[in-house]
Structures are given as structure tokens and as C-alpha cells.
Design a protein that fits this description.
The chain has 335 residues and is of the alpha+beta class. The chain contains 11 helices and 10 strands. A hairpin with a 2-residue loop joins strand 1 and strand 2 (101-108).
Length: 335
């Protein structure tokens, strides 16, 4: 019985130890040798004391004290807006609302020559919220079919769409790592951009698979969702936040915004985590055009060929939507 108890306790202890060893490896102060040493010391030290020390409670006490020190250190890691940021995330977008008038500051409109060679421009743009006509969702796949990046884009009667991508704010020299995204390695940023920037980058330069879904979201809800986004963007200027690959990513953050504006939002679904299947979830919930099979909808929603053909055309946003099923065409036009 005592041996069984030790095993039952050891399993969660080792899992917790492995997690916080990774935290030490990724987030402890550099140089690399110090990070490796701290992570290895905690993990191997835990194994050694549980194997060699008796009675059983002694190693647990030592482990709990060590874990407490790590948790205290973890609490001292705070996000910042003051760092040497990569140019494409150097500025935080923010918005001002005056009645139906929405002004976005620091909207990104980069000109790409290659994925890594580009000129960043930041602009101020004004939108008439009374002319809001719909909401679209882009799903971007760069490797695994299980995981996608999502971008929301609001459509207006006049002017360019307003695309917002929730991303990691990377410092100069940083690369994105899904694993590091769990360990306070990136700040969170709302990249507000022209679609010829944030979408064309992915279709024409990164070679990622991009799908565009026209949503059935009612206009009042789409407007409320946009204003909730703007509120969060403005909050980040004074209160920076860490990106988290599980709880604060491009999809779970959208779900949180939707819950803010719609108390009756559908319950949580596993496909919000394994979000490569998010389009399937939207189809099941009737958020997209269901007049055809899901397979046909998905095939017609792929925009890579159209995006490459449109390239720098000022009508890029119009051209990538040609032939994409749009359930909003069934709606009566406002008078």
C-alpha cells in the first residue's frame, strides 16, 4: 500500500516538475548554460530526493519549498511595452470612438518584397460604423492541419476592410515557438492591418494555406465585437499582457471577445483548442454558409490562387472574395 501511495503521488509530482523545469529552461535569465543548469537541477533533484530520501514526507517538503521559490520567481516576470521590437510589431494599434466614427491609429500597411524584406508603414484610418456590412474570418495553415491562425476582418460599404490579427509581439532576434508560447516569452499584440499586408503576406510570401469564411454574424453583434476588440487594444497600451499558446492565443481570445458581447454564445468546444477544425465547428453551428456541403464550402473558400493573382492590386480585398460563398447575400439591404 505504501509503495502504491508513493507511485500515485510521484506521477503528478513528476508532471508538475517537468512543466516547471521547462519554464526554467525557457524563461530563466540567460546565458543558456544557466537556464539548462536550473532546469536540470530542479528535475533531476526532484527525482533523486524521491528515490533516496526517507521517510516519504521529507522529499515532498523539500520539493514543495523549491516549487514555491520557482512560483515566486514566476510571479516576478511581468509583460512590458518597452523592448526592442521587430519592425512589424513595433507599434501598438489603438482606437478612438466618437459616435459612429471609429479612428484606428497605427494601422499597419507594410510593403513586402520578400517575407523578411519589407517596408513598414503605419497609418491612421477612419471607419463609419453605420456602414458596417459584415464580418469575415480567415483561417491560415502553415503546417499541421490541427492548428491554424485566425484573423477577423470587418467589411464596410466604402473603403478597405479592417483586419485584426491577434499575435505574438516578438523582440528583435526572436522566432515563434509554440512551446515557448506557454512560458511568458511573448507579449500579446493586436495587429490591425490592411488585408494587402496581413493576408497577402501569408498567401504570397509565406506560402501558407488561407481560407476565407463569410460569417452570418448580425451587424449589431459584429459592431459590438469590433468595439470590444478596440477596448482591449487600448488596454494593452497601459497594461501589457503576455501571449499564452493555450489561454490567450488568436482563437481563444476571439472566443473571449464573443462571450463579452453575446452572453448566449455557444459553449466551449475542443475545436477552439485544436483550432484547425474551427471551420468545421462554424459549419456545424451555422455561422457560415450551409447551403452546400462543408467540403464544397471549404474548397470554395480557399483564396491562395486569387490572392497571388491580385497581389498589389488596390482591389485585392474584392478579388479574393470573388466566388467565396456569402450567406449575407440573402439578407435584405438596409434602406
Amino acid at each position: 500500500m505504501r509503495t502504491l501511495l508513493r507511485v500515485l503521488v510521484a506521477i503528478p509530482v513528476l508532471l508538475v516538475t517537468a512543466w516547471w523545469s521547462l519554464a526554467l529552461y525557457f524563461a530563466a535569465p540567460e546565458p543558456d548554460w544557466l537556464q539548462i543548469t536550473l532546469a536540470a537541477a530542479f528535475f533531476l533533484g526532484t527525482v533523486i530526493i524521491h528515490v533516496w530520501l526517507r521517510p516519504f514526507r521529507f522529499p515532498l517538503v523539500i520539493w514543495a519549498v523549491a516549487l514555491g521559490v520557482i512560483l515566486y520567481w514566476w510571479s516576478t516576470l511581468v509583460p512590458t511595452n518597452d523592448a526592442d521590437w521587430q519592425p512589424d510589431v513595433a507599434r501598438l494599434a489603438w482606437g478612438e470612438v466618437n459616435g459612429d466614427r471609429l479612428t484606428i491609429h497605427n494601422l499597419r500597411n507594410a510593403d513586402y518584397r520578400t517575407e523578411q524584406d519589407y517596408t513598414v508603414r503605419y497609418e491612421d484610418r477612419t471607419y463609419d460604423l453605420s456602414k458596417l456590412r459584415g464580418l469575415d474570418l480567415f483561417m491560415i495553415y502553415w503546417g499541421s492541419p490541427f492548428i491554424a491562425h485566425t484573423i477577423m476582418s470587418w467589411q464596410f460599404d466604402a473603403g478597405s476592410p479592417l483586419a485584426i490579427s491577434i499575435e505574438t509581439r516578438k523582440k528583435v532576434g526572436q522566432e515563434y515557438s509554440a512551446i515557448e508560447g506557454f512560458f511568458k516569452q511573448y507579449e500579446l499584440i493586436y495587429v490591425v492591418a490592411d488585408e494587402r499586408d496581413v493576408i497577402r503576406l501569408r498567401t504570397n510570401y509565406r506560402g501558407e494555406e488561407v481560407y476565407l469564411y463569410r460569417l452570418k454574424t448580425p451587424i449589431p453583434e459584429a459592431r459590438a465585437l469590433l468595439l470590444d476588440y478596440v477596448h482591449s487594444m487600448n488596454e494593452l497600451r497601459d497594461h501589457p499582457q503576455f501571449y499564452n499558446a493555450l489561454t490567450d492565443n488568436c482563437t481563444t481570445t476571439i472566443r473571449r471577445h464573443v462571450a463579452h458581447v453575446d452572453p448566449n454564445a455557444p459553449r466551449f468546444d475542443w475545436r477552439l483548442i485544436v483550432n484547425g477544425y474551427g471551420d468545421e465547428l462554424m459549419y456545424e453551428r451555422g455561422n457560415v454558409d450551409t447551403r452546400m456541403s462543408f467540403a464544397e464550402l471549404r474548397a470554395r473558400s480557399r483564396i491562395n490562387t486569387k490572392a497571388r493573382a491580385a497581389d498589389q492590386d488596390p482591389t485585392f480585398s474584392i478579388r479574393i472574395r470573388e466566388g467565396v460563398p456569402n450567406p449575407r447575400l440573402l439578407w435584405p439591404r438596409p434602406s
